[in-house]
Amino acid sequence: MHTSSERPTTNAHLLGWVEEMAKLCKPDRVYWCDGSEAEKKRLTEEAVAAKVLIPLDQKKWPGCYYHHSNPNDVARVEHLTFICTPTKEDAGPTNNWMEPKEAYRKLGALYDGAMKGRTMYVVPYVMGPATSPFSKVGIEITDSVYVALNMGIMARMGKVALDRLGQSNEFNRGLHSVADCNPERRFICHFPQDNTIWSIGSGYGGNALLGKKCLALRIASYLAKNEGWLAEHMLILEAESPTGEKQYVAAAFPSACGKTNFAMMIPPAVFKGWKIRTVGDDISWMRVGEDGRLWAVNPENGYFGVAPGTNRKTNPNAMDSVRKDTLFTNVARTADGDIWWEGWDTEAPPELTDWKGQHWKKGSPDKAAHPNSRFTAPAKNNPAISPSVDDPKGVPISAIIFGGRRSTTVPLVLEAFNWTHGVYLGATMGSETTAAATGQVGVVRRDPMAMLPFCGYDAGSYFQHWLDMQTRIPHPPKVYMVNWFRKSAEGKFLWPGYGDNMRVLKWMLDRAAGRVGAQETLLGNTPKAGDLDLTGLDAPKENVAAATKIDLGEWEQELESQAEWFDKLGKTLPKPIALQREMLLERVRSA
Ligand code: GTP
Ligand code: SPV
Ligand code: MN
C-alpha cells in the first residue's frame, strides 16, 4: 500500500492539492490508486471484510459483488446539486446556484475532519480513450472504497491517468466524502471556473462517481460551450448493414428512458445481417472533424445500468455484460448468493433478501429490488462492443435522436425539417420522471436534450450553443425525435420497444443515407406508409397506428404548455427557438 510518503507522482500541483485536502478531511491514511488487478483484488477483499461488499456465488458470478447503499441514498439528488458560478445568471433558471465562496465555506466546514478514522483514496482517472486528444484527466479523492472500485470500472483508472497528466496542472479536482450520509448535509457542488467538484453526504451513482455526471456532463458541457464542442447525455451506437456499411448514431433519452437498452439492442430476425454494436450507453463528447462531420467519443469505460427490466429477452448483451467482474447495488438477493430484480427472466423465488437487507416474501406489495438499483459492469464484457470504442478520433455521427418517455402526444418517430427545428425539438423535449432521481415519479417535465439535470450553465445559452454548432458542422447529422413509451387508454405500452426499436432505427439510418423518402407533416417528417418495416412484429396493427398517430388537438395543448417552459427560461432563450413554437402553433391551429 502506498502511504503519503510513497506517492506515485512528482506533479507538484497534484501533490499540493492532495495534501491540502488531506489536511482538511484528516483521514487516518492516504492511499493512491494505481488501477492494477492486484490492487482491485486487495481493495475488494478489504470491502468484503468491512461488509461493504457481499460476494455472490463466485462459480456462477465470478468477480461479482453486491452492495446495499444507505436506504436514504439511492439516486441522484437534483435539489441538492448546485452549479457554483460567479453569478446566478451563469447557472441559469434550471440549475440550483450557490455563490462559490459560500459553497467552499459551507462544504469546507462539513469536510473538516470528515475522514477521521478512514482511508482517503486518491483515484486518478481519464475520461475518454487514454491517447485521445479529447480526453480529460480527473482526480477523485474519496473516502469510499466502493466508489474507488466503481471508478475502476467506469473510467480508465490509475497509472494511465498519472502518465497522461505528467506535470500538468490541467486536471479536474474532485473531492468526495460520504461523511455521515445525512441528506441534511448532502451537497453536490460544481465549480466550472475552477474545474472543481465537491460532493459530500452521498455514496450513490451520479452523486459520488465524479467522472460521470459531474465531470463528463456538468463541467464538460461548460468547457464544450467555451471550446465549440458538445458534451451530451447520449448513447452512441454503431449499425452495420448486411453489406458491411457502418453508420453511427447518438441518442439522448432522459435518465432511465432506454439509452443502455437502445445502445445494446439486438435486431429482430427479419433484419438479417444487420449488426448493432455499442460505443457508449450514457455520455457522448462530440467535435467537428476535419471532414466537416460530427465525431463522437464515449468518455466512459463501463456501464452503470438500471437493473429492473433487464433480462435475457429485453437486453441479452447487458445480461452478458454483468456475468463477471460486476458490482450490483440495491438489487434483491437469494439465500444462495444469487440475485433477482423486478423484470428478471424468471418469477421471484418464494423468499428473497430485499434491497434494504430485509426478508421479502413473494406477493409482497414492496419491490424487492430498488427501482433505481444498478449494475456497474466493464464495457469490455459486452459481446456487442464496437471495435471503435477506443478510437482516439471517435466515430462519425449521421443521426442525432432525442426521445422522451411520454404516455401521450409524441409519435413513435419524427424527423426534424432542419438543424434549427431539431434543436427546437430537443429543447422542448418532455419526459415523465423516473426513479433515477429522488422525487415524484411519472410526472411530465421538460428535459431538454435529456440534459436538464446535467447542463453546467444557463439553459438558454446552451440552446444558443446548439444553434451555433450548425455553422461549425458543414455536414451535420439529421435530427430525430422518438417515443417508445406511448400508452393505450388502459395504460399499456403501444409499441413493444427494445429490439423492435430497430424498425425505427432502420428508417432513420435509411433517411440519413438518402435511401428512403418521407411524408411531411406539420410537426416533422414521418415514415411513408409501408416504409417502417413491421414484418413479424408481435403487436396489433391498431397499436402501431396509435403509437404513430399525430393528434393535432393534443399537440395544440403541448405547444401551449411549452410557453410556460419558455417563460421559465427567460431572456436567454434564443429567438429562433421561440419562433419555431409560435409558427408551429399557428399552423396547428389553422389546420
Ligand atoms: P440512465 O442510466 O439512467 O441514464 O438510463 P438509460 O437511459 O440508459 O435507461 P435504460 O436503458 O437503463 O432503461 C431504463 C428502463 O426503461 C429499464 O427498466 C428498461 O427496461 C426500460 N426500457 C428501455 N427501453 C425500453 C423500450 O424500448 N420500451 C419500454 N417499454 N421500456 C424500455
Ligand atoms: C442517470 O441518472 O442518468 C444515470 C445514473 O445515468 S447516475 O449515474 O446515478 O446519474
Ligand atoms: Mn444517465
From TrEMBL:
Q: How are cofactors bound according to the entry's free-text note? A: Binds 1 Mn(2+) ion per subunit.
Q: In which pathway does it act?
A: Carbohydrate biosynthesis; gluconeogenesis
Residue segments, region Disordered: 359-390
- PROSITE patterns noted in UniProt: PEPCK_GTP
Enzyme Commission numbers on file? 4.1.1.32
Q: Which residues bind substrate?
A: R76, Y204, G205, G206, S255, N372, S373, R374
Q: Which UniProt keywords apply?
A: Cytoplasm, Decarboxylase, Gluconeogenesis, GTP-binding, Lyase, Manganese, Metal-binding, Nucleotide-binding
Segments forming domain Phosphoenolpyruvate carboxykinase GTP-utilising N-terminal: 17-225
Q: Where is the composition biased (Basic and acidic residues)?
A: 359-369
What subcellular compartments does it reside in?
Cytoplasm
The protein's name is Phosphoenolpyruvate carboxykinase [GTP]
This chain's source organism reads Anaeromyxobacter oryzae
Encoded by which gene?
pckG
